[in-house]
């Protein structure tokens, strides 16, 4: 489990990769609280449960919560119309017929929509949770009620965690041929424990930075014999999930925790990658005065042209009201900076794991911690100065705000054609695929947006197919790894 | 009590004038829940309570909650540094010595800061609540513990309401000489029940539209023998409270209830007064496409120049994702419009009372209501179409978001010099006052903003005093009513 | 003539009040150059000219330029559709029949559209120029050709200036009964030289700060026996002309002179009135980092909330790339500040007359001036440092950019109903007029904007007439002066 | 010459690639007019000229204009401080010693700064013009006076054009070993006429779309035996030149030609690549209502999220006030669309060559053309409707505005390390180069921007060198072509 937080990333673990101690955040969700705290303490593994059709091919907290979970899924579906339309378009032809997918992701209403779409397209699915705290028990119950073999609950022990994964893979008379992973634990488990199954996997779709990192290492070591799709670096994830998701959630996270007014506030944003760009845009738009720190001269020059002063942290630390880290770096904020912050300065992290803010340096005998609200601590200096630390340095938007379903939809939708592509790869490994453009086009109706179509003459003049792809190849997807495998990497698009 | 909602207003009842059924909103507050729902059901009027100093000169829900309330007050103080600095500056000279103020306002952490400032400046205060649901019991307890004669709790009956007011006014050996009112109920009570006290009141400060309306009526009828300060129309309230407060809170209210993504959403804002301007600015800044409806050609032309399409509601109602009313009008949204909204359209009100959205027209046998989350109802048409109604048409930002303490601070701070001015009015009725500029200057240090000072030559050239006032008289304050009284109205400033 | 620059103003002389040495600016106009520099040097007063209908009731530079001038007028008409529609609506009823108007304004294509509208509505007009340099000779020729008695050319001597005014007023068999003035010179001339005519004037419409100031003085002295309409303080001028006109023209003026890139530039804007607000909004929008200086705490607080740091000039003078003055103050920029500017710093004035920037302090033996382009001087310090001074400190947007015709149209259109109102005032002095709302509504069709109409019920509920006025009286127009006269002042609207 | 316009491009030929009939644009330049129109008509090829040092190794219009040209160069230097600092830093070590560069670019003040930097770093240079109209004669004179072998003047014949190129290449006793090209004509000439020289060229730097396209074709055909650096696709050009340059110049181009007011204008921007993004951002920021058309679903989705309605042109063509093409497509605007535009609609092109707007379809007997101002034509329909066509459909910003020197500086600066890199490539072909980060860092001091430096620990944690490169390899530079050559392509960076 420790491997989860081992690898750095510029843009952080966006998606759903919530940090482990995120459990206390549910009170910030707009949804009604998902879990019944008065639940009995019997482990789900001990319980005998069957759904209304008599099946007991699952393990969840409480199958009776299915109806409530279904309502949450339905609310999510309203903002994931792309997946629904994909479901409708492809339902007849069952393009995923024959796919036997084992999945390991956060189990939320949004991923439920994804899983049910995979099923609707013909796949058989077995699912576990990639995080021991993040499962919405009601949603898991709704999935189980609908017939998905789901093994997950909130508050699993580490032993439970691997037990659930194993229950997905190790099945008599059913052998997975596809993996959909978030973090790499499932992939690792199959690779280590069931090498024979692993060899016959037709494709892996991985969406987290950590998981992709692990796949690269495997590939470097010459041991990745399976085609793997890196959804993390897809255009749809990078350019939409990171930028827009943070633009939407930074204000929300700050408001829900501190009720801070943005107008006129001085804010320093550490890092001007996609995450930083999103934060800066939103804060500036609401009247904050934003400073940027950067190590990369290109991002720094962009910040300048976008109207932000690029400074060293030490230049502004005494005057800012809010510090937001988006660096993807470890230990970016040593004690000296915290020492010099002014009273009531708010400190939070949008970038990566706890390590961006040097929280441990604040756990000293000199400093007093006072929990003033859920997710809000005052760290009090001997002279009475207070620094307001949010979510103990964990990701603010995942801990203290909700993330727009629509944006999650873009990434989730990407996984469906990815699965389909990998199924086909066996037969046509040279396939020039552009799932990103397809996925983007599925989301346009939500905006009532109308694409212009090239005339034949124009298409010819431009040397393009009328239906795309419209980007040069190097923007979209590149087979990266040789051997007998294909590794798609979707590069960034401007 | 019904008079509360009787009078229209362009800009709505901003400030703290929360609607009556606001009680269910506490779950949206970032503060921990203020009230212990398992509290015993004994009426505070029946209880015997004393604070730690042995005084029982108050009536609150539970004096034991004082410590928790004190913490909330302290948090509020951090964003109300102007009041605190006023407290510090004027504390020595006690400018309000001799003031015996009866107050009737929402009792929240922010008003507690105001009350304690009045006390620190030498005033004696007795306080009741202007709304039977809005009292934060813990804050009332903290005030009582600190020695303020406060009579208020959450969930008063109407009888309780007037009993509390009466307890403030009707005291042996103590006679109020100042009124600080929000809504006019206290003023009305004193005027009707204690005419002898009323005659000796040296000044009334009123901050709500409704209360001001009632004062105007009294004045028109020749019965307002007391100088009254209209804080509602002060520059500091109109130009800051309305515009910036709505800019800050519209996004927050929508996010906390619906998690809606703003990017690309089509929104129609009905009304382009200060409230509408604030909403439009925030929504556009976060990537929404905003349409405006207006009846007033000047506001309409401003909307045009600011980059919004000005339309009739019928032109866009089929395509918008969100409808926000800020008209100050009754019945602005008849059933026909709701009929034509698209599925999942969100409808909310930032403007005035429930009547802006024609909620009653939705209470029909044909339409099904489904409460999906706190403050969020789905109204379901026979064909399955759902309209998402927030806060049952009550003010969104007061019901579903928090309002920035800092902005409230501006209005609250205005009340202190208003009290002082009225105290002085007796002696110098021709006083050319500019509390608005003074109040604004008190808030500048929060931004580390530094005013430029005129040189003697420049001041002379401009015909100004170096310390202001800087605006022509008609921008600031005008004595409106004759008789033996003075009525200050602070006009708008651009 | 010296009186022109005597009076201060917060917002400066926007409209067309170009400074005297503006003559060199023609090269910046997008229109082809208006004047034929090779023109003969004979004074127009010496020439015998007749238009094509045989009339010689005018005095212009060269009647043969009429056709070119007509084209410029036609181009202007396209952006002044409100005046044209007013022309069409009211043409039948000739509401200005009987009006004999003497006018004294800048003579440009835009004012030509106004003059011809007045004529179309039934007025008889005689016109001179309010500035010796600003006349577009071709436009004057076109007016003369069309039958307007116009007496104006570019490059008048001071003697010519008063001769032209006199030719308008002093006519056998024709006696003016209305004055339309810009600056007050015409009014002054009639008042002093023709007191008998002055007494019978039915109304004065004045649009400049200076002229209004002079009228106030006259009124204070009890000598203003004529109703006067202060268009300068009308909502339509203040809220549109100042704010939006500056937002549109600040970027234009800087680009045309210096080609400066805005992205990332540090700019200090001195003054945050309407002019400053417009400049700040535009610069921030294009990626500049903007600082504000202010003397007025209310404007300063607005700047803070709008996301600008409020500083003293000395705090930022060493680091800024551009300094823009909008203070309405004299000598705002003493030598010490210029001394500390960095190399290549651009200095310009959007606010008032030359005196905002202390240009004379730069005319010293130590400093070298180098004219690098038209309207652009490098002032060179002994150590080689260069400060880039635009338009020698005169108004940047009038000197170096064009001003949007549409915005001018709003103010110009205001003058037509003003004339009509004053005609009527004699008969109905208590008339509650709202020309500003009417004028605004005339401009909405340009934006295809559709006003919402109140239902009868709503109007009744709001206590409003369905057709307005929608603003409280104190927003719109107030009769200010007693005697037998009326003085309309239109107050500001938020 | 015809090849110039043959190749399509998404983003158009930004940089300096002015279209051929751009000659009439000089009047829009803020600089004084570069050419003396009364110049004698003798061809420079016939003239005998020597500079003040007695050299006649050049061919320009008039060597006497050198001083004026020098001043223009000096003005440009002020905004190209990165090149100047590069000059200073590397001057001692003369990194380009041994480089014998033939160049063929637009000859402007900005390129003069580049050429003189190359010389200062040790290179020998011979230069011709890549466009027969774009040469600033004074600048060419200044270069010649400074000793650069420059062969160029404004108004060359096609024969002159190739003669000048040949004079650069075909020199006794001097053999070029580097090519700096803009458009590919010089490369083509050397390749065809001097194959022996071509073989020994150590590197080509090409910055235009067209030129890069020709190199790719050469490479595909296996005939590119020389390493070539594609500056056109460098991060610094794509992300800065295209986006920010258009953001800065679209407003300028529209203002200088039409004085149009932006507030409330409805504008459709065809294409949402970098150019379209820049145009949309600027227009929205100034209050225009912007619609977008797109063929590419990813760009379309970005437009949605950024707050623009994505439409087909036919949906909005009747209502828009301005049409801007940025498609890189041919014939994007057939007659039908122009037919349906409203009166006074402005049409212009920011994207590519004339062909984006179907100008020829407007050259019909039915339609009357009227040249109303320089670069502004009214195309008049039989019913009187006028469409305002700017620059006859050529690139608006290059024809009618100036382009910020600072942005040009970024691309120009990129060429210096490119030259150096190519010099080194011979020796170390596997060099992992990152000139883009270096170039960006050189521009930061202009903004007083301060980079943060990684600590050793952080660098180690991130697996980065403290001095960069900070981007993964695929963001920066990729060797594209095998054989014995290297072809650097700098890919896009987010």
UniProtKB/TrEMBL annotation, chains A, B, C, D:
Substrate binds at residues 108, 182, 207, 237, 241. Residues 17-36 have a biased composition (Low complexity). One of its GO terms (biological process) is one-carbon metabolic process. GO terms for cellular component: cytosol. Its cofactor is NAD(+). Residues 242-403 form the S-adenosyl-L-homocysteine hydrolase NAD binding domain. It holds the Pfam family AdoHcyase_NAD. Keywords: NAD, One-carbon metabolism. Binds 1 NAD(+) per subunit. Residues 1-56 are annotated as: Disordered. NAD(+) binds at residues 273-278, 294, 397. Coiled coil: none annotated. SMART domains: AdoHcyase, AdoHcyase_NAD. Belongs to the adenosylhomocysteinase family. This is Adenosylhomocysteinase like 1.
């Amino acid at each position: 489990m420790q491997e989860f937080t081992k690898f750095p990333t510029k843009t952080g673990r966006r998606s759903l990769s919530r940090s482990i101690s995120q459990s206390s955040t549910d009170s910030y969700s707009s949804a009604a609280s998902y879990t019944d705290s008065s639940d009995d303490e019997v482990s789900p593994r001990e319980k005998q449960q069957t759904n209304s059709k008599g099946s007991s091919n699952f393990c969840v907290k409480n199958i009776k919560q299915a109806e409530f979970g279904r309502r949450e899924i339905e609310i999510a579906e309203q903002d994931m119309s792309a997946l629904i339309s994909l479901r409708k378009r492809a339902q007849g032809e069952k393009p995923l017929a024959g796919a036997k997918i084992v999945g390991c992701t956060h189990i939320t209403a949004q991923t439920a929509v994804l899983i049910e779409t995979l099923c609707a397209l013909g796949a058989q699915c077995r699912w576990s949770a990639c995080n021991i705290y993040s499962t919405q028990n009601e949603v898991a119950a709704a999935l189980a009620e609908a017939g998905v073999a789901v093994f997950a609950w909130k508050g699993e022990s580490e032993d439970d965690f691997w037990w659930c994964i194993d229950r997905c893979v190790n099945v008599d008379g059913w052998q997975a041929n596809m993996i959909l992973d978030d973090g790499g634990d499932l992939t690792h488990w199959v690779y280590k424990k069931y090498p024979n199954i692993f060899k016959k996997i037709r494709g892996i779709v991985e969406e987290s930075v950590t998981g992709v990192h692990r796949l690269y290492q495997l590939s470097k070591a010459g041991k990745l014999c399976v085609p793997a799709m890196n959804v993390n670096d897809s255009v749809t994830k990078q350019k939409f999930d990171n930028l827009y998701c943070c633009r939407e959630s930074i204000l929300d996270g700050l408001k829900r925790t501190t009720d801070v007014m943005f107008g006129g506030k001085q804010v320093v944003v550490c890092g001007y990658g996609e995450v930083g760009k999103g934060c800066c845009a939103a804060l500036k738009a609401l009247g904050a005065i934003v400073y940027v720190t950067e190590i990369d001269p290109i991002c720094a020059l962009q910040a300048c042209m976008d109207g932000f002063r690029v400074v060293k942290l030490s230049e502004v630390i005494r005057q800012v009201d809010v510090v937001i880290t988006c660096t993807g770096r470890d230990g970016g904020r040593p004690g000296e900076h915290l020492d010099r912050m002014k009273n009531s300065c708010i400190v939070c992290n949008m970038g990566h794991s706890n390590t961006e803010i040097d929280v441990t340096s604040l756990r000293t005998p000199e400093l007093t911690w006072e929990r003033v609200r859920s997710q809000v601590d005052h760290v009090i200096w001997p002279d009475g100065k207070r620094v307001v630390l949010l979510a103990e340095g964990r990701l603010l938007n995942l801990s203290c705000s909700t993330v727009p379903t629509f944006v999650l939809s873009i990434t989730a939708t990407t996984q469906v054609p990815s699965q389909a592509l990998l199924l086909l790869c066996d037969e046509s490994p040279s396939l020039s695929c552009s799932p990103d453009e397809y996925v983007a086009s599925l989301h346009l109706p939500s905006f009532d947006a109308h694409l212009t179509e090239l005339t034949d003459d124009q298409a010819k003049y431009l040397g393009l197919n009328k239906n795309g792809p419209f980007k040069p190849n190097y923007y979209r997807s590149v087979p990266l790894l040789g051997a007998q495998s294909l590794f798609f990497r979707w590069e960034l698009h401007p």
